[in-house]
Amino acid sequence: MGTLRLGVNIDHVATLRQARYATMPDSKNAEPDPVATASLCERAGAGGITAHLRADRRHMQDRDLQRLRANIMTKLNLEMGNTTEIIDFALLLQPDEVCLVPEKRQEITTEGGLDLARHERELAPTIKRLHAAGIRVSLFIDPAPDQVETAVQLEADMVELHTGALSNAFTEKIEQQELERLREAALRASNFGLQVNAGHGINYRNISLIHQIPHLVELNIGHAIVARAMFVGIEAAVSEMLGLMQNYRG
Ligand code: PXP
After folding, report:
1. Could you tell me the CATH number of the domain that includes residue 241?
2. What one-character-per-residue DSSP string does 22-74 give?
3. How many domains does the chain have?
4. 211 three-class SS
5. What pLDDT digit, counting tens, does each position of 162-187 carry?
6. CB within 6 Å of ligand 1 — which residues?
7. For residues 34 and 25, what is the distance between their CA atoms, to the nearest angstrom?
8. Is residue 250 assigned to a domain?
9. Which of 14, 142, 186, 232 fits 113 for a cystine, CB–CB 3.0-4.6 Å?
10. pLDDT in tens, 51-65
């Protein structure tokens, strides 16, 4: 039985602050603070903190990432699109890990995985630069065999398998099909020596399905935990999720 690590994505804490204080970032009233949230997540047992710096800065701000970098005791995973401005920022920030994601301005949250075959040429130099700076690199991909193989060619350290289609499955048949795709992708990635993570749309109910995917090392969960925190507080929300992640058989 393995221990599954929990990375808490705290973007939505910044989303809530920005809803009121986007035009007054220096206000003494600006709240809630993602950095304070990160510390509480760590105290509750999170193994890492994930934040997405988007090109439009709709939630996390540069200063949030700098403060997170200075305060996080576990590890900081920066989610980001493959653009010059954000890469330069990442190289200065020095997160422990970067997860490269596709980014469209119109989407509310990251929608699909990276299409590695299509973007291999742009991704290769970015991965090399991040590696040269000592940053481990994860690629957020749909659970498809060709995506896993391209991640290996690109010399990624990790893949994060997109669990959105599983989470949103409306019928049991689609759910089973998605589970099978995730299981096969996890097995393939693990056989190639990649660390296998998963994320997107995981919540307190569908976490039971995640237990059926082999070889997972880390889950990145944001929305469900931040939403649950409204009722029970962030520490309890993290502990409850960790409780449901226990006894993972790998
Ligand atoms: N992993 C990646 C790569 C993501 O883009 C997101 C959403 O920002 C998550 C995990 C977390 O998804 P959710 O908020 O649905 O738990």
Report:
1. 3.20.20.70
2. TT-TT-TT----HHHHHHHHHHTT-SEEEEE--TT-SS--HHHHHHHHHH-SS
3. 1
4. coil
5. 999 999 999 999 999 999 999 999 99
6. 9, 11, 52, 79, 99, 101, 109-110, 140, 160, 199-202, 220-224
7. 13
8. no
9. 142
10. 999 999 999 999 999
